[in-house]
Structure formats: structure tokens, C-alpha cells
Amino acid sequence: MLYELRIYTMHEGRMEAILQRFSQHTLSIFERLEIKVYDFWIDQTGLPKLYYVMEYKDMEERQRLWGAFRQDPEWIEVKRKSEESGPIVEKIEEIFMNRAEFFIR
User: Fold this and answer.
1) Domain annotation covers residue 34
2) Cα(6)–Cα(86) distance, integer angstroms
3) Torsion sign across C-alpha atoms 55, 2, 20, 7
4) Into how many domains does the chain fold?
5) Which of 30, 43, 71, 97 fits as disulfide partner to 47, beta carbons 3.0 to 4.6 Å?
6) pLDDT, tens digit, for every residue of 38-78?
7) Taking Cα atoms as reference points, which of 3, 1, 13, 62 lies closest to residue 35?
8) Torsional class of 104: left (φ above 0), alpha (ψ -120 to 50), beta (otherwise)
């Protein structure tokens, strides 16, 4: 399995917008496209950051699924509407990981 840690840093004052976009739209689009969110966190210290982990079979699956997501008409419209007041996400970090063989979950 391949895991991807995605870290989103929001523009000032846009945290609520990203939370609404994920809870009301993005997660259901992921589900429809069979994109698996493994876990999801909101920064505890008050920084305008979200952290979530995606799970894929391999990098090929990851590329295919994200390609489908970026081209999805519902996503394109949701993103456009949610950013009418300005951009939400300032920075996205993508970290790819494999679970250590000695760790059993």
C-alpha cells in the first residue's frame, strides 16, 4: 500500500470555507470516485491547517484517481463556487509513505 499525507495551509480567514467544502462536497466526491481517505485531522494548535492521509494500491492508482478527481465536473463547480470570495488553500504539501514492515496495525 501507498499512503499520502496531504497538508493544506489555508489563506487567512478561510479555514471555515475549507471545512465546509470538505464536509459538504469533497468527501462525497472522493467516495463516488473510490478515493479512500484513511484519516483526517484539523490542527490542534489553531494554525489554519488540515492534515489527511489517503490510501492507494500504488502510485499508478494514485495518479489515475487524482486525475479523475481534477477533471470531475462536480469538483470543478464546487471549487469555483467555494472560491468566489477568494482562494482558500495557500499551500498543499504531498508526502508519500509506505508503512514500516515491523509495524502491525
Assistant:
1) yes
2) 21
3) positive
4) 1
5) 43
6) 999 999 999 999 999 999 999 999 999 999 999 999 999 99
7) 62
8) beta
Q: Are strands 89-97 and 49-56 parallel, antiparallel or unpaired?
A: unpaired
Does residue 54 sit within a domain? yes
Domain housing 25: 2-97
Position 44, amino acid: Q
Query: Is 87 a domain residue?
Result: yes
Amino acid occupying residue 64: R
Running DSSP on this structure, what letter comes out for residue 35?
P
pLDDT in tens, 2-29: 999 999 999 999 999 999 999 999 999 9
Strands (E), the chain: 2-10, 36-42, 49-56, 89-97
Q: Cell numbers 489515475 correspond to what residue? A: 64
Domain containing 54 — which CATH number?
Answer: 3.30.70.100
Is residue 46 within 8 A of residue 89, CB to CB? The reply is no
SS3 89: strand
